Amino acid sequence: MADTDVIKRAVPDPAAWFSLLALVLLGTRFVQGFIFWGGASRRLLYNFREVDGADVAVKLDFDSVGFVANKLTHALPGTLWIQGPLEATLNYPDLIVASVWLWTIAELVVGLALILGLATRLAALICIGLNVSLMLIFGWMGSTCLDEWTMAVSGLAMSSAVFLAGGGAWSVDNLIGRNQWAQRHPWTAWVFSGPVPLAQLKTLALVLAAVAVVFTVGSYQILFGAVVSPQHARVSFHNHSIALSDVTLADDGTVSFKAYVDAGPDTGAAYVIAARLVDASGSTVAEWDGTTLAALPATAISNVYPYVWASHFKTEKIGFSGQTGARATITLPPPQGSSTGTARRLVLEAINGATWQGNLAGTP
User: Fold this and answer.
1) Residue 306: count of CB within 10 angstroms of its CB
2) Which pLDDT score, from 0 to 100, does residue 55 have?
3) I need a labelling partner for 138 at 20 to 30 A (CA). Which of 64, 73, 87, 238 fits?
């Protein structure tokens, strides 16, 4: 019988497999890192103004209208599950500043770590957490292509892949991994991109894939529908809405109410050009035109968040406006020459014809 040549295929060792996997995801690792580094660097390095002869980062200046926490007040109406803690944070300036700096430093460190491939797996794991947080706060926002939702789900999937692959040959981790100290401690592989047991890798890959699927499909259904229900927005980012509550009518005809812009794009505002009291049949019994509303004194609008950068209600040339997320108690003066005894509801009319209404306190 003739001899048969046996071709033995060389099986790369785990280190070579991980190096190849990391090389495939090198661009992904850089992009995810640059996204976070870019967000932090725009606040820390590239946007300054002069205050008392010193350059101050606009987005980190609490007294600037560009302070980055303005995004939090805009996002409040659609925040998922953490609206209470977020609102509580916004009541304490020191806590706001600490939170902004903590987030900024986390973005900067994680972004640079991924770009350089330093502690890659740890940085990617933190990125997963950051993307989940972004979804909870901002996922409902975006005028085109569901911008914030797309960023969060894509970021989670990218970070998961980088976590599994590690940094590979093109990383600082590769230099650290050659150190005898790192080789003596197996746990360093989970931080500095060393090879991990392939059985554990397979399990982790399946778990993270399942997390990505549930996160993507679940958040889409919650925010927009169109999975197991008709398409609908949990909170509309396209049309402003003002929720009215605690509407009270004083004996002298003064009307006080709480207003909350609980939907709409953060790039605009809800513009109110008229207000009126109506009776049970819907007939107007008293009204305030745009000129009267525009003349409201500053004391008539008490914003919950008084900071210069927060979403506010404010008077305009005609009527008043409220940015997305604005909350305020507004007081209207007694209407002239009107009897308000039969009034049942307060109606606000927007410049685009939309109306928002709330029943007077004690009125069914």
Assistant:
1) 9
2) 67
3) 64
In the block, tokens 């927060």 appear at 310
d(CA 267, CA 260): 16
Which part of the chain is CATH 2.60.40.10?
241-359
240 φ/ψ angles, rounded to the nearest 5 degrees = -70, 150
CATH number of 241-359: 2.60.40.10
> Token match 């957490």: residue?
129
Distant-in-sequence, close-in-space partners of 362: CB < 8 Å, separation ≥ 6: none
Task: Count helices and strands (H / E) in the chain.
Answer: 12, 12
314-329: burial string, b at 16+ Cβ within 10 Å, e else: ebeebbbbbbbbbbbb
Sign of CA dihedral 81, 85, 88, 94: negative
Helices (H), 81-196: 83-89, 93-116, 120-138, 147-165, 172-177, 180-184, 189-192
Encode pLDDT of 206-239 as tens digits.
999 999 999 999 999 999 999 999 988 999 999 9
Strand partners, 362: none
Is residue 52's pLDDT more than 80? Answer: no
8-state DSSP, 9: P
Asked if 173 and 192 count as a contact pair (C-beta separation under 8 A), the reply is: yes
Four-residue CA torsion sign, 181, 184, 185, 191:
positive
* Amino acid identity for residue 278 in this structure: V
Interacting residues of 114 by C-beta distance below 8 A, sequence separation 6+: 29, 30, 32, 33, 36, 120, 123, 124, 127, 162
Per-residue confidence at 258, pLDDT binned at 50, 70, 90? very high
Distance CA 290, CA 337 (A): 17
SS3 256: strand
